[in-house]
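Quick board copy: two proteins, each given as sequence then tokens.
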Amino acid sequence: MSEMSADNRKRALGKDLLLAAVMVAAGLAVSGLALTEIRSTNTAELAQATQPLQSPPPSDQDKTPPAESKPGGGRPTTPAPEPARPDTQAQKEGAKPALPPAPAEKMAPPIQQK
């Protein structure tokens, strides 16, 4: 009986090796077909890129100097921004700050040096 189980093991191993070899051969065949398909296509189409846009050369009329920047900037905002903390005069008149007061920093005891 031990003789039969050894034969069965050899047959199973042979079938497994045959199946593995067939699968490897099929993979190589598919890879080869894919490579020949890639090579047979026109490579000029694959490497073709769009042409860069060409703008007309600048004329002398287009060479105006940029506008001068002024200190303080001229950036209009609508509505005008209000400060987060009104000045003391406005606070006396009843204006409330837009933000709550900042929390006081918490003090910890000093770190002891060793």
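And the next:
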Amino acid sequence: MSQPDEKKDNTQPPQSDLGNELRELGQQIEQALRNAMESDRARQMQKDVTAGMMELGNQLQSAIKSIQDNPRIQDLAERGEEAMHKVRQSQAAHDFQETLVRGISQLNDQLAAFAARMRSNETPSTPPDTGSATTGETTRLDPDKDNW
């Protein structure tokens, strides 16, 4: 560190003084951290943390093994698998899937027809716009309702 009583050479710009002081500060911090890491107390704390983590890992492994070996847990897992198998094989699930497929198919057909109508209205042979609105045939989406 520099001494406050020292006379500084005024030929150096103040930036180099700042750089030197920061470099010295960094070295001091590095040395302090090294000393702390190498101290007996730090080593003991590291050993304690390592031992604690190993004990925690052993306890977790033991708990998982006891859960896996528990007959009630095994029975519960088997029941869950059977229930999932039944759901996959049920008629309701099959019917729902068929209904969903039919609905999507109808939607695809309607979208294809709509796209075809839009393409036919975009042909270059259509007359220029004269200011009056003309549209094609109206398609009712809900044929059961008479009122609009």
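Board note added afterward: Residues 41 and 47 are 10 Å apart (CA to CA).
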